[in-house]
Q: What sequence folds into this?
């Protein structure tokens, strides 16, 4: 690590009376990967937005490359050498890779855009960071991982000296993670300092030099990664010890009735003759690599996508679910992996988002009982420890983890019998994960049943009573949790169909 390039001291920020940042300190050195960690709502994103000029700070100082700075917008911070790669990429899929990289600053021949030069410069940037991407193809044809590489190349093209990566691996496959880490190490060698925001502890140990932890808008401390354990960092983040051991045996009684049975389900190209059963009080984990077809099974079952063939039975009775509305009426709810696209109304209140699925329950003689909606929403969100000033707070002002909790509160209010949780803890810190795990365990104790789709094998092993494994649209095996290991799950997850 080189000299200090960023010094943030005593940063204060208020939002409508809420003290979001309470005197936070942060330091970054040249060529350093400095992890910024904390529970959802700890203030990490707010601190980065203050740094980049999205939010005006209410106190404290920021020194960048030895100069006091106070950016008023993103353009000013980018001009000073700061680039941010957000968890949810803000790019244009209909344009080419090169066009996305140089949008707003295209090379020109007079008044005409010089496409040839733009493509050559994009290719040179890819060569510089060591990735193979065709700059002439549409961005939408790339995987999320490759799109992030485009964002990094775009940052390098701006002569970036400080790079912020916000949950960069949330939607990446393991090979894409390895490719990202290789690029990051190359950038380190060039002296670029990086702020790395992630909830994945194993990644923090591999890629970071130091870790700064925030909690409830306050600075907790900074430690050298090599000198602390995972448990040390978790305790700093949540103020308590989090247990995450594998479940040793199923908690489902041997005579538990079958509440859901799916026979020979086929839907599109990604669901091929899938059959399974779900018992009362059971957590059935769905494991597999990205693209295995797990989400497609859930969406077909829920009526969000059409199914070609297959039978669905609820408590022994055959049902024909064609729409999500029909699924909900049959007691099935679905928590989508893409909460921003399918789950949230960002410009509506916490109460509105919580009550939307059960709105009919709050209507009397054609009138909506807003007071009752607020009361019941507050009860449901209190169970999840959702951090919000009030039920009237707009959802867009909550952190990603707290937005996830609001969606779960929605289905708690609906009182469904079968919950489908698709990547329920994606982008959520270890403290919030623990709370969601406890909630899921409470649900099954009440006789509810859960299908949990997760790409994190420790999570599958921690929560499941049984594990169903998929590969390329097919079910390749089922394992009782007592016999499940990461190794035998991965064997089934890579069991491709023989031609």
A:
């Amino acid at each position: 690590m080189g000299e200090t390039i960023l010094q943030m001291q005593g940063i204060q920020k208020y939002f409508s009376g809420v003290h979001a940042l309470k005197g936070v300190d942060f330091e970054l050195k040249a060529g350093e990967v400095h992890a910024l960690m904390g529970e959802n709502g700890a203030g990490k994103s707010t601190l980065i937005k203050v740094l980049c000029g999205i939010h005006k700070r209410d106190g404290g100082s920021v020194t960048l490359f030895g100069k006091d700075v106070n950016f008023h917008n993103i353009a000013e911070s980018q001009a000073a050498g700061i680039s941010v790669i957000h968890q949810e990429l803000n790019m244009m899929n209909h344009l080419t890779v090169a066009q996305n990289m140089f949008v707003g600053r295209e090379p020109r021949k007079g008044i005409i855009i010089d496409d040839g030069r733009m493509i050559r410069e994009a290719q040179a940037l890819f060569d510089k960071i060591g990735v193979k991407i065709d700059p002439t193809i549409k961005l939408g044809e790339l995987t999320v991982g490759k799109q992030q590489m485009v964002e990094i190349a775009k940052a390098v093209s701006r002569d970036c000296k400080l790079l912020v990566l916000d949950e960069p691996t949330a939607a990446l496959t393991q090979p894409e993670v390895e490719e990202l880490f290789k690029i990051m190490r190359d950038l380190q060698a060039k002296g670029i300092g990086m702020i790395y925001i992630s909830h994945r502890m194993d990644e923090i140990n591999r890629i970071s030099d130091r870790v700064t932890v925030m909690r409830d808008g306050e600075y907790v401390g900074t430690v050298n990664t090599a000198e602390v354990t995972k448990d040390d960092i978790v305790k700093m983040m949540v103020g308590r010890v989090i247990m995450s051991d594998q479940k040793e045996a199923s908690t489902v009684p041997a005579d538990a009735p079958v509440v859901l049975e799916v026979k020979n389900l086929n839907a599109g190209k990604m669901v091929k003759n899938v059959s399974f059963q779900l018992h009362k009080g059971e957590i059935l984990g769905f494991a597999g690599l990205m693209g295995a077809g797990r989400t497609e099974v859930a969406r077909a079952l829920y009526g969000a996508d059409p199914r070609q063939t297959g039978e669905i039975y609820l408590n022994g009775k055959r049902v024909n679910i064609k729409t999500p509305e029909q699924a909900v009426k049959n007691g099935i709810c679905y928590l989508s992996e893409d909460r921003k696209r399918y789950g949230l109304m960002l410009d509506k209140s916490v109460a509105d988002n919580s009550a939307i699925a059960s709105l009919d329950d709050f209507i009397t003689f054609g009138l909506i009982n807003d007071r009752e909606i607020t009361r019941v929403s507050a009860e449901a969100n209190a169970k999840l420890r959702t951090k919000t000033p009030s039920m009237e707070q707009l959802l867009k002002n909550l952190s990603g983890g707290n937005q996830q909790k609001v969606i779960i509160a929605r289905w708690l209010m609906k009182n469904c019998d079968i919950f489908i949780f698709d990547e329920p803890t994606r982008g959520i810190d270890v403290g919030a994960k623990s709370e969601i795990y406890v909630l899921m365990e409470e649900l099954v104790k009440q006789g509810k049943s859960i299908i949990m789709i997760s790409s994190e094998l420790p999570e599958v092993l921690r929560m499941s009573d049984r594990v169903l494994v998929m590969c390329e649209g097919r079910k390749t095996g089922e394992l009782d949790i007592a016999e499940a290991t990461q190794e035998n799950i991965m064997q089934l997850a890579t069991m491709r169909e023989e031609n």
Observations:
- The mean pLDDT is 89.
- The domain at 4-238 is CATH 3.40.50.300 (Rossmann fold).
- The chain has two domains: 4-238, 258-493.
